[in-house]
Structures are given as C-alpha cells and as structure tokens.
Design brief:
Elements lengths: L18 E6 L8 E8 L2 E7 L16 E5 L13 E10 L10 E8 L1 E6 L2 E6 L14 E4 L10 E10 L5 E10 L1 H9 L3 E3 L2 H20 L2 H5 L7 E2 L2 E2 H14 L5 E12 L4 E13 L2 E15 L13 E6 L8 E6 L14 E5 L14 H9 L8 E5 L14 H16 L9 E6 L1 H12 L6 E5 L12 H6 L5 H7 L2 H4 L3 E7 L6 H14 L5 E5 L6 H4 L3 H14 L12 E5 L4 H12 L5 E6 L4 H4 L1 H7 L4 E4 L6 H10 L3 E5 L7 H9 L3 E5 L4 H16 L4 E6 L4 H13 L3 E4 L6 H10 L5 E5 L7 H9 L3 E5 L4 H14 L8 E5 L4 H13 L2 E5 L8 H6 L7 E5 L7 H12 L1
Parallel strand pairs: 20-21, 20-22, 22-23, 23-24, 24-25, 26-37, 27-28, 27-29, 29-30, 31-32, 31-33, 33-34, 35-36, 35-37
Antiparallel strand pairs: 1-2, 2-11, 3-4, 3-5, 5-10, 6-9, 6-11, 7-8, 7-10, 12-15, 13-14, 15-16, 16-17, 18-19, 19-21
Length: about 900
C-alpha cells in the first residue's frame, strides 16, 4: 500500500498473560464446564525476508533469524525500504487440559496480505498474494483454529507468511494471541460480562428461533414482532430492516435461511443483555445460492424488559449498495454524529471521505475514526456532520473499463444515503475529503458534479497524476483527468464556487508536496480563495495527515455554517457533552482535559482492575490532579501525552507491580517525573497506604469511608463521594473487619470519629459494623436495596457534609468501574456531583432517576461513549431535567 500508518495505540485492557480459567458455558441451551483460554503471543518473534515453503514447518530451524517485536506500531522498520515476502515465526507451549476448546487466533492487523500456519496447518489468510495482489491491510485477522492444528500440552509454532506490496508495511497492530470465545470478546471487542441465567437464556433462544422461522416462512410481520419499537441496528430502523428483508425474500423465492452459530448470551458488565453470535442470512439470487448477509460476528442487543431485539444504535457501521450499474454490491461505512439519535428530527450535512490506493471502506476502523470524529464534533466545536466512507478499491473514483464506479456513486450511493439517513440533500451541505488517491478523487468528483458538492479537501492528494486504472491505452486517454490539468480549463467563477483545503508534507515519497504548490499557484493566479499547506517535515504516511483532520473537516464546517446551517439546539439550554475516547484509558484522558489545564501532580491507576483504583479518587483530589488509567505493563501513550500537557512534577502510582508494573515506573522516571508508589502486600494494605498519604497531605482525618474489597458496586459510589470531601477510603472483607483496616482506623482517626459504611448488610456485615463500634468509632451505615439506592444514600451523606450537588452533573455507568473512577474526581474538581446510572435504561436505576427530580444543572458531562452510556439514557436524562 502507499500509506504507511502511524495508528493509535492498542485498546488497553488487562495485561494479556496466559490464563486458563474454568467457567460456565453460555452457549444457548447448554450448560457445562469449559475452559477459558487467553494466550498472549505479542513480543519477540523470529523474522526473515524471503519466501520458502519449508518455513511453515514447525521443525524448521529459525535460530539464525533476527528477532523483531510483534506488533510494531507503524510496521517493522525493514519494510520502509523493502517490498516483498517475509515470514514471522514463534514457538510457544500450550497448556494441558484445554482439549476440545474452540480456539481462535487473533493476529491483529498486517500490511498487506498474509497466510497463517499453526504447526504447518493453514488456519487463515487475508488479502491476495502476487501476482494478483490485493491488499487488505485494514482487515482484522481473526482465524478459527482447526481442531487438528494445536498441540495441547506441548510445543507449537505459529508461522505467518506476509507480502508487502508498496510503501511501509509489516505487522503493525494487535492484539496477537490464541483465545477462546469469551476471552476473544474481551480482548478484541472490549466486552466483558457473565453468562445470562437459564431463564433469560431460554427467552432469548426462543427469540432467535422465532426470527429464523419468520424468515424461513417469509413472514415479515412475525419478524418485525421480534423488534422493539425503537429498534435501530447498524443504521437500519424497523422500516428499513423490513424493506431490506423484503427485497431479499423477493429474490430468494420467498424464503431465507437465518443461521446463528456459536451463540453466547451474556450480561455485559456495562449492563446490556447481548447475544454474541456468528449470524448469516442466505438464500438464492438468480437461481444460485447467495449469502445476503455473510457469516458475521454480531452483538445483538436485547431489551431485558420486553425480551425483544433493541438494536445496537451504533453510530459507526457498514452499509452497502445492492447490485446496480456495477453488477455487484458496493460497501460503504457510515458515521453518525453525536446528536443524531438525541435530535431525531434534525438533519445534518454530509462529508464523503475517500481513501487512498490499496485501501478500502474498512480502513477507517483500525484508525478509530469514530472517536476522532466525535472529538472534532464535540470538544473540537466543528459542525456535526454525517460522514460516508465509500469503498473505492484502487479505482481512482472514475468510470473505467474495470467498473463504472463514479456512476454507481452519483446515481446509486448518494441517493441511497439521502433516502436512508437524515441528510441535508443540498449542494451547500455536501463536501468531499480524500487522502492520496482519495484527494485526487475529491477534486475530480467535485468538479465533475458542481451541482452536488460545495467543498473539497485533500490530504497528500495525487493532484499531479491521471487516474492509474485500466489498461495502458485507457490511462493514456485519461491523462487530462489529473486535477492539475483540469484546473487550467476551469474558469475563476467555476472554481470559486467551491471551498478548498489541500496539504502535503515536504518529503512526500511521490512529490505531492510539489503538486500542492502547483495547485496553489494555479488557484492564486485565478484569484480563487483556498488554503494550501506544505508542512516542512514528513513523508507520505499517516503521520503527515491524520493529526490534521481538524483542518480538512474545519473547512467543511466553515462552508456549511456560511451556507446557513441550522445546528442541533441544546435542550432547554442544557449543555450535554460526552467525554470519551476509543477505550477506557483515552476516556480518562478526556476527563483530565476537561478538568485541568495544568497540575502539579497526577494519580495513575490500573485500567485492568478496580481495588487499588477505587481508593485513588480521594488521593487525586488531595493532590489536586486528575486520576488517569494506564495499561498495567507499560505506560499508555495517551497518558504519557497528557502528563506532558499538564506539566506535572509528581506521579502517584496506586498499587503494587501487579497493578502497574515496574516498567511503568521506569518509564515515568526516565521522563523526568518524581514517582511515588503507594502500595501494600494486598488491596487493604494499599488502601491504607493511600489513606496515610492523604492524611499527610491534607491533615488529620475526621471521617473515613469503609467499602467492600471484593466488589466494586458500592465502593464505586463511595469513592466518588469520598473524593468530594477528600475523605480516605479503606477496604475490608464483607464478613469481618480486616486486621490491616482495623489498625488503619486506629492510627488515622481520633476516638469518636465517623466511619461511613458503604452498603447494606450484604456488602458489609453486622459483624463489621460491630467491630467499628467496638473500636470506639461512630458507624454511619449508608446502604440501600440495590447499588443505586446505596449510591443515593452516600450522596446524601456527602450533602450533609456540604457536598453532593449535581451542578455540573457528571454521568457514569454504575455497572462498570473504569469511567466512573475519573468521573468522580472530575465531578469533585468542578464542584458538581457524580450520578451513577444503568448504562442502557435510566429507569433500571430508579434511585438515580429520582435524584434528577428538581435538579437543574447548567451542563451534563457524560463519561464514556454510547457503549458506556447509551444515547437512550441521555434522552431520558434530558427529558427528566426538562420535566
């Protein structure tokens, strides 16, 4: 491929060490023990350029090969100056006792094509090797492992043959490992949870069977009856889903086969009821078997009250144009802006984003483009827009002998987008952006359709080249299709009817910086307003353009607003904003950015586990700095960048080396920070160490909050309330006051001081309360019938001490710990309050819903994206505050 990526960091979850954990099967209709497997294969691999069939053999001696890191951000350095075949090999042991476990190999992302072998058995391939090369550098590699391939309880060799076509390449992103299904779901998709109970499993299994029977019978009324009134899944509401299925049924003689395989029904930790399924819908087209929906791993969202499918309400998903002028399907990816579901009657402008050569519509997914666009349209202040990312292969966005791509785009894709999404279907509210080949396309498509588009943006655009598609004669005939040639034939009046932004880097591998300068000269000579930039450093890669999308989307935003764009109004003047990133680590950074322009100190906790992090909130307030989350085994890049922005001097580490490894501490020290680790031999001792530091910083404590050490529900609320008053949090077992904590109370508190017990008798037993009383303290139990009622009781306790207000109101999920940790500190920092809610339905957290009665915050800050707190909950919160 041409574009060498410098992609965002790997989704930070827990440290992926090898684990084999028994759990209960969640397969629909079955129960029984299976083994859960998560084997991390990232690290040093053997590597060689070249290509020999024998290198797939597990017995091949690769000891003379060099070692490289897998994955390497941006790809291994050797591919900067090498195109061709190369092999990676790794020998590892599989533990005994996992016979019969269905394993999948996650190989992350590889540029450009690969074939993977486990012990000489091919387990999967992506892309096409020469001579018919087809790059799939943007596709996630997930390969099911055949039962005969692994050697359980012995030595295994994974060998991966790759071919890099052009530009940089290699193995550039993970996760890399062998996983059973549940582990794969957590590591790759960030979804954690537990199997649904038997009754729920039976109900959902019946729902899936009803859907399959309905399509087999061609009964769309029966299928629609399985969907909620507000159903939206990957952009398809009930009406569109019905129309889509009706079309497929008409082609398939009135019957379709819906298959759900490897089904697991889970209660996700974020509160959703999910069906993890490999779903397909097949039938016939033109009398031949056809997969209308090829096998795809899907996560179906089920309404826990009605038992019907509710849809994922995704804002970033794949769509397609059915066969028309091209005679085949054409995929495109859709991004819906943050207010799309919150403002259901509003229409939005549209930007069409065109990729580079050897790319595809899916290349925006590994670039985490939803999070990047969300940031532009929220904290970045740009006009919210729908963004459509068509698949253009290497077709240069023209009609050619290969395929009439541009006719499909203009005559089929654009009308479909305008019909199915709430666009503003006018020239003034459509823009084109492109990268490399896509920059070429933005100019040529825009200039060829002046009645459809009003703004053109290009990053590293191939403005000097004609379309390089078709045979030699065709390319020669298209020589005048280069934008630098076309611009000479257009009048100043025509050219001035568009807004322009285009850029490149000075050391562009294809000299497109010179093309920018030439286009700048042409437009300047014709007195056409534009913005052209050649950056003094950088090559033809993601580092050149990806950090600068604010400029290209800023162009479109300015153009739309100048045309009189009406933007979604706030509800009754209420400012509601999400503070979110692509993962829990980036979300903690977003909350830090919201609350602090600078700080002398910051607190760092593990993103992988809750105990140490729960007690760190009051410490963050004691040092007047944010609470940031990092991967346990290495300092996460977004965190390192945020510490630099804050210009901190001291970083406090919450927990021992299991929570945050020595490598994290070493890197922080190397960056010049004073590092203070607060840790004990176990979680109660770490809580004591943190409490002692708070007392040392802020003076003697008059109150301590006591929470259960082995569950986060009540402790999460306790931590946020404690942060408000900078009150230490101590942990104990639920049945008896731990010796460490009892001694900490005696050392930290004067006799007669108050110990707030977080939770009811089930959380902290009467024996714990009696032990607190016997030690000479006042036990103030704050609990309720569920986690929401306990959180309300703890907020009331804070109110009695001068805190607990809800302006600003900070919302966080009460069913998962990561986002709420930093949110509690942010709420305290801003003088507001944290409200923990059910992530999918406000009414499922009744005490939290009741807390909104009479509340009148000027703004609402939401910790996390729609997967953390759904758009539905935000609609419910808006309605409650408006009422």
């Amino acid at each position: 491929m041409i574009n060498v990526r410098a992609l965002v960091a790997l989704l930070a979850l827990s440290a992926m060490t090898m684990s084999v954990v028994p759990l209960v099967s969640a397969e629909a209709g079955t129960e029984g023990p299976v083994e859960e497997v998560a084997i991390d294969l990232e690290g040093a691999w053997r590597f060689s350029t070249g290509d020999e069939d024998a290198w797939a053999d597990p017995d091949f001696d690769d000891s003379a090969w060099e070692e490289v890191q897998v994955p390497t951000d941006g790809g291994q350095d050797v591919f900067d100056d090498y195109d061709g075949f190369a092999w990676f090999r790794l020998a590892f042991d599989l533990p005994a006792g996992i016979d019969g476990v269905n394993l999948a190999a996650s190989l992350g992302f590889i540029d450009d094509a690969d074939i993977a072998y486990l012990n000489g058995v091919e387990i999967g391939r992506t892309g096409v090797m020469p001579p018919d090369s087809d790059s799939q550098w943007f596709e996630r590699r997930l390969y099911p492992v055949p039962a005969e391939a692994p050697v359980v309880g012995g030595r295994n060799v994974l060998a991966v043959r790759i071919n890099d076509f052009t530009g940089g390449g290699g193995w550039y992103r993970g996760p890399v490992g062998l996983f059973s299904k549940t582990s794969l779901r957590e590591v790759v998709y960030g979804i954690t949870g537990s199997p649904a109970d038997a009754a729920t499993t039976a109900t959902v299994t019946e729902l899936l069977a009803t859907q399959a029977d309905a399509l087999a019978d061609g009964d769309l009324d029966a299928f629609e009856a399985t969907l909620t009134d507000g159903y939206v899944h990957d952009g398809r509401d009930t009406d569109r889903r019905r129309r889509e299925l009706a079309g497929w049924l008409a082609e398939s003689d009135g019957t379709l086969v819906l298959t759900d395989a490897e089904v697991e029904i889970i209660r996700a930790d974020d509160g959703r009821l999910l069906v993890d399924t490999n779903r397909s819908i097949t039938g016939t087209r033109d009398g031949e078997p056809f997969a209308f929906q090829p096998v795809t791993q899907e996560f179906l969202v089920i309404d826990p009250v009605t038992g019907l499918e509710a849809g994922n309400h995704s804002r970033f998903f794949r769509d397609l144009v059915e066969p028309g002028v091209e005679g085949k399907r054409r995929e495109y990816v859709v991004y819906l802006p943050p207010s799309y579901y919150e403002a259901p009657d509003h229409r939005f402008p549209t930007v069409y984003l065109l990729h580079g050569i050897n790319g595809g519509s899916r290349e925006w997914e590994p670039r985490d483009f939803q999070a990047r666009l969300d940031e532009l349209f929220t904290t970045g202040g740009l006009a919210e827009s729908i963004v459509v990312m068509p698949d253009g292969e290497s077709l240069w966005y023209i009609d050619s002998s290969v395929t009439p791509w541009r006719s499909m785009f203009i005559d089929e894709m654009l009308p479909q987008v305008d019909a199915e999404y709430r666009t503003l279907p006018e020239r003034a509210f459509r823009g084109l952006s492109g990268v490399s080949m896509g920059g070429h396309g933005a100019f040529t498509v825009g200039w060829s359709n002046p009645d459809l588009f009003s703004s053109i943006a290009s990053h590293m655009g191939a403005l000097s080249l004609p379309p390089l598609v078709g045979d030699a004669d065709e390319m020669a005939a298209n020589a005048d299709e280069a934008p630098l040639v076309q611009v000479t034939g257009h009048t100043p009046a025509f050219l001035s009817s568009f807004a322009y932004f285009f850029d490149a880097c000075a050391d562009d591998d294809f000299r497109f910086g010179e093309a920018v300068e030439a286009m700048d000269g042409q437009l300047t000579a014709k007195m056409v307003e534009h913005t052209a930039i050649v950056y003094p450093e950088g090559r033809h890669n993601d580092d050149c353009w990806l950090p600068r999308i604010d400029a290209s989307f800023g162009l479109h935003s300015d153009s739309f607003r100048a045309a009189g764009l009406v933007e979604p109004p706030p509800v009754e003047g209420l400012d509601v904003r999400r503070l979110a990133g692509p993962d829990r680590i980036a979300t903690s950074v977003a909350m830090s950015v919201e609350g602090w322009e600078a700080a002398d100190a910051a607190v760092l906790a593990s993103a992988a586990d809750f105990p140490d992090a729960l007690t760190a909130g009051p410490l963050a307030m004691a040092v007047d700095g944010p609470l940031l989350l990092s991967a346990p085994d290495a300092l996460s890049t977004p965190v390192a960048d945020e510490l630099a922005r804050l210009d901190v001097a001291t970083v406090y580490l919450a927990g021992g080396q299991q929570a945050l490894s020595a490598a994290v501490e070493v890197e922080l020290t190397a960056r010049g920070y004073e590092v203070v680790r607060l840790a004990g031999e176990e979680r109660t001792a770490t809580a004591r160490a943190i409490a002692e530091r708070i007392v040392a910083l802020r003076g003697d404590a008059e109150t301590v909050v006591l929470a259960r050490s082995d569950a986060f529900a009540d402790a999460l609320a306790a931590s946020s309330v404690a942060a408000t008053g900078v009150v230490p949090v101590l942990l104990t077992g639920s049945d008896a006051l731990s010796e460490t904590t009892g001694q900490a109370l005696a050392d930290l508190l004067p006799e007669g001081a108050t110990v707030v017990l977080a939770g009811g008798d089930a959380a902290l037993s009467p024996a714990v309360e009696q032990a607190v009383t016997d030690a000479g303290f006042v036990a103030d139990r704050r609990g309720g019938d569920d986690r929401w009622a306990t959180a309300a009781a703890l907020r009331a306790a804070a109110g009695e001490r001068g805190g607990g207000g809800l302006d600003p109101l900070v919302l966080a999920s009460g069913t998962a710990f990561p986002d709420a940790l930093g949110a509690g500190v942010l709420a305290a920092r801003l003088g507001g309050g944290l409200l923990l809610v059910d992530p999918s339905d406000l009414d499922a957290s009744p005490a939290s819903a009741a807390a909104l009665d009479g509340a009148a915050p000027d703004r609402v800050l939401v910790a996390g994206g729609p997967a953390a707190i759904s758009d539905r909950v935000l609609e419910q919160v808006r309605a409650a505050l408006a009422g």
